[in-house]
From TrEMBL:
Residues 1-27 are annotated as: Disordered. GO terms for molecular function: ATP binding; FMN adenylyltransferase activity. Keywords: ATP-binding, FAD, Flavoprotein, FMN, Nucleotide-binding, Nucleotidyltransferase, Transferase. Pfam families: PAPS_reduct. This is FAD synthase. PANTHER family: FAD SYNTHASE, FAD SYNTHETASE-RELATED FMN ADENYLYLTRANSFERASE. Pathway: Cofactor biosynthesis; FAD biosynthesis; FAD from FMN: step 1/1. Residues 80-237 form the Phosphoadenosine phosphosulphate reductase domain. It comes from Talaromyces marneffei PM1. The lineage of its organism: Eukaryota, Fungi, Dikarya, Ascomycota, Pezizomycotina. Its EC number is 2.7.7.2.
Length: 272
């Protein structure tokens, strides 16, 4: 087993092409980052638009934030954790959780300094993924525990290491394997480590994920700009053939150019 825990440090920056103020105005605490993200999300929600994609995105955001707020009603902050692997879906989920923090925390508790999270490292993980997890966990003040173990074993160890954890937010969507029948709140199966799985973005579509990331100017794993649309390990993850540039099959358009959910995983489990 290879496991370590890294808490976010001061002096971090929030991911994104929309840079935060420098110097003394830069956020230095999770609370300041969360308040900044809430403003950005609220601005998106208040946007008057005829664009159908953005209208659907606004609906999805409201549903997801209600699920997150409900999770804070059912569990104390110290009983909640986030499954984080640096992918696009859990990045969106992370930002929504932080945006909900200012209005969801109990009035008798102080603002947390970090957000508990777990990173189950894929077999032969991409260096770019690991680096993005490393930097973004500092940007967003994650108390991130890493495990190089199969998922079930990693969760067993994590719950022993953090016995207070009762529920874990997960960025699974319908198009993911075993995602078709999931609800917003699902307890784990009896033969798995016991906790509540919370799926706030379960019904988001691929295009909505990227609309959120790009509208808020969030930084993301650079593999997405090379045509990767679903990230796993180096042995089962390749650029999406649907994004190949005609006339040059060695070059690919960025992931956000893909539109269809059913094409998202075309780069997984295939031969080079």
């Amino acid at each position: 087993m290879n496991q370590d825990s890294t808490s976010a440090q001061d002096g971090s920056r929030v991911n994104g092409t929309a840079k935060l103020p420098s110097g003394s105005d830069a956020p230095r605490t999770l609370e300041e980052v969360a308040v900044d993200l809430r403003k950005k999300v609220d601005n998106l929600l208040e946007l008057q638009t005829d664009d159908e994609l953005l209208q659907n995105l606004q609906k999805q955001i409201r549903i997801s934030m209600k699920v997150i707020e409900d999770s804070f009603q059912q569990y104390r902050p110290q009983e909640l954790s986030l499954s984080y692997n640096g992918g696009k879906d859990c990045l969106v989920l992370l930002v929504l959780i932080l945006a909900c923090l200012p209005s969801s925390l109990p009035t008798d508790s102080g603002f947390p300094k970090t957000l508990q999270s777990i990173f189950i490292i894929p077999y032969k993980s991409f260096p770019e993924v690991y680096e993005f997890v490393q930097t973004s966990s500092k940007d967003y003040f994650l108390d991130l525990t890493r495990y190089e173990l199969p998922m079930r074993a990693a969760l067993e160890v994590y719950l022993k290491d953090r016995p207070n954890i009762k529920a874990i937010w997960i960025g699974t969507r319908r198009v993911d394997p075993n995602g078709g029948l999931l609800k917003h709140f699902d307890p784990t199966d009896k033969d798995w480590p016991q906790f509540m799985r919370i799926h706030p973005v379960i019904d988001w579509h691929y295009a909505e994920i990227w609309a959120f990331i790009r509208h808020l100017g969030l930084d993301y794993c650079p593999l997405y700009d090379r045509g990767y649309t679903s990230l796993g390990g180096v042995n089962d993850t390749f650029p999406n053939p649907a994004l190949a540039i005609p006339g040059d099959q060695s070059k690919f358009r960025p992931a956000y150019k893909l539109k269809e959910d059913n094409e998202e995983r075309l780069g997984r489990d295939r031969k080079k």
